[in-house]
Specification:
Radius of gyration of chain A: 21 Å
Order of helices and strands of chain B: HEEEEEEHEEEHHHEHEHEHEHHHEEEH
Number of helices of chain B: 12
CATH architecture of the largest domain in chain B: Alpha-Beta Barrel
Distance between the termini of chain A: 33 Å
Structural class of chain B: alpha/beta
Structural class of chain A: alpha/beta
Shape of chain A: globular
Largest sheet of chain A: 8 strands, mixed
Oligomer: heterodimer
Strand content of chain A: 15-25%
Number of domains of chain A: 1
CATH superfamily of the largest domain in chain B: Metal-dependent hydrolases
Largest interface: A-B, 64 and 58 residues
Strand content of chain B: 15-25%
Number of strands of chain A: 17
Number of strands of chain B: 16
CATH topology of chain A: TIM Barrel
Order of helices and strands of chain A: HHEEEEEEHEEEEHHHEHEHEHEHHHEEE
CATH class of chain A: Alpha Beta
Number of domains of chain B: 2
CATH topology of the largest domain in chain B: TIM Barrel
Chain lengths: 462, 460
Amino acid sequence: MRTRTLIATACALALGACTGMDDGTGGETRSASAASPSVGADGGTPYASTYQRYPGRPTALVGATVFDGAGNRFDNATVLFRDGEVVEVGTGLPTDGYDVIDGTGKFVTPGVIDIHSHLGDYPTPSVQAHSDGNEATSPTTPEVWAEHSVWPQDPGFSRALANGGVTAMQILPGSANLTGGRSVTLKNVASRTVQEMKFPGAPYGMKMACGENPKRVYGSRGRMPSTRMGNFAVNRQMWLDARAYAAGDRSKRDLAKETLAGVLDGDILIHNHCYRADEMALVMDMAKEMGYKVTAFHHAVESYKIADLLRENDVCSAIWADWYGFKMESYDGIRENAALLWKSGACVVIHSDDENGIQRLNQEAAKAQAAGRRMGLDIPDADVVGWFTLNAAKAMGIDKMTGSLEPGKMADVVLWNGDPLSVYSRPEKVWIDGALLYDALDRSRRPVSDFELGQPGAGDVK
Amino acid sequence: MIRLALLGSAAALALVTPAAAQDFTITNATVATGDGSEPVENATVVVRNGRIVAAGAGVTVPAGGEVIDGTGKWVTPGIFSAVTDLGLSDVDGVSESNDTAAGNSPFSAALDASTALNPNSQDVMVARADGITRASVSTRPSASIFGGQGAVIDLGADPEMVTRPRAFQLVDLGETGARISGGSRTSAHALLRNALREAQSYGDRAAIGAATARPSDTSFGDDVPLDPRLSGRDSERAGDVLLTRFDAAALVPVVRGEQPLYVVAERASDIREAIRLKRDFPRLDLVILGASEGWLVANEIAAANVPVIADPLDDLPTGFDQLAATQSNIGRMRDAGVTVAIGRMSGGTGEQPRNARQYAGNLVALSRLPGATGLTWGEALATITSIPARISGFGGRLGTLTSNAAADVVIWDGDPLEVGTVPEAVFVDGVRQPTDTHQSGLRERYRDLNEADLPQAYDW
């Protein structure tokens, strides 16, 4: 909340600084002009987060094995958090003033973060009336915002929390379009409105897609693009038009251009659905040509073929552990993808893109780790936990706030009843900003969506 | 049980011992037989002539044959993937390679999965390398409510995949079947009942029950012959028929209870209606597929003695036919006495067949979660080995380390239900299987990114 207000204010006050053309290599120093594009007629940030943390008790988790998300492991450690923030992680810390929870034999990690979810915009029940994830009426729709599709009553949010320990996620538009629109980052807190779920201070992302989906969707309608070269042509022209807009005074409101200008400014992060290595290499060149940066390739099943390029360009790969072969461009998917990226020093994020997979990101990461072990790559557990916590947070631009158990960060915490890299473990308790929002031992700490009330199995263990 | 016994003896004929079967003994391993019991440490598995001779602790190591040191390893039966599409597709999204559904076919129940199997599909190789040795496969209902005649197959690296062709018929009586059939469950039920009646009368007119009227089935080589009246005048029927004669013929063994009918039904009321089919067609040999709301009607399923091949971890109200879905479904059905296997895993995404072990492991995890109902480790393994084999008509013959069962054996590098565990050796009918795949080739090629001397393409 605080960060968000500051950004909006800075932009409003320094309009000149917000409207300049960026070279695409940075943006840190520029205000988030297009990320919070405009000030509404009421002077506020449009659709601003109204999230407020729920009350929590000062809590000490004592005696557990702790993976802090930042690559460290602490045995028999204590995790302290209060007032919504992590206080300290270490061994033998005094716990005066804290509610002590015995973590003996248990494990603690940061809250799980899914960088690629469609919860809310493709909610269950998966009926046609709920199909709100692809504005598949034009190949480029940077003007749409995923948050305007999110149904907060999607029962999938509660499953991700209870079974997956998911505390934050990025909801993306689908991949029918080359440019699908803005993503939104949410806290996994049951809410009446999407604004109450919006992660305060999180930058926006923009979804792009290469390859088969856009050319199939539009080619089948006799429209451009119908080929991969058509994909690039449409995207490049879109960027050229956006650059012209961004170089101007930006005074005329244009939803599509505001989002694209935000990308050029470096304030909106590009999340690019892309499977094939050769296409990723081309996209990275398109980004250089047009002056923006790709933050992460999603579904990047062939990243292992260009791990060096990805490392050099500082692009993350958001991937499944083992999906392969369900379409031509996924034919070369291998389980060792994450391990080979890790070996090359490239950034690995484990994602779900799936309302079921989001419940088991920890297990997916463990599968990818094991594939590495079999080919002689011993990846420490603490690094693997980072694949579904801190690395996801980094690629979503929220790593200063969450993703690891470092002092001052949001107390997004999971207490697992065993090793999170084992199939036999489940979240026992999940805190978001220090508030206990799931407790396997207490039925009253289990969210039930409006949709499920009065239905068979409402409130059941799921 | 009678059916299983009958089919079991017939199955023995179908399980031809391959010439290359090795005699071997695995020693000092942690062995789980797949029958629901817990694993036993320091145990021995003896294989002779493509069959299991003995498995367990205190088994004497016989003379002869290879002795494999199983120290630190786990040994189980090969995984049985129930109701999948292995062998029917190379790439799901490449329609030319995909035979998993016949959306424009004029035929329905007569579609025969055994005619489309491709042992060189990467899906088959990947599944085999991951310890899946048997499966039941069928096409998916698409043009009609019938999926067609499914086959039981092995995944051995040899040209013959079929263990038993036309082993079951599949019909969808849930939301999908209702949409296919004309827009309502009423139509799906009317279609099915009409089809079964046509098959019934078809069989009667041609006096299928009379031994003399039935030609020899030797040309087909299995125990469920294609109805012989597909040629000749006996196949003529009255005018008011909906099914092609080929489709009607395919349903004759179903209506006679000689071929199981797998019914897709998720909603509690859909499951009830499926069970009620037996009032009109008492000889039907039903199996329920899906059953996400099975726990709501578990006692009725158990009383009807109908086994279930369940979706393993469904816990979302994906449709209005599974509002009550919960991961505890399988455990609760087990508690009610229902025979439950895990199945319907296919394709290359989250529910790809090789993830059945992970899903079974999750069912074990539930047993540690307050309020949830899980399975024991041994029960969980049984849901992907002996139970699907038994439902498929191969009880005691497949999916188990019981004496005289086919030697489908996997040696694992750890607990097979734990994520990341993989086979070190896979045997089908006692034949050690190759585990190289397209994926392993890519892994080795890209192990090192080094093109200093030659492009990666020369690394193979």
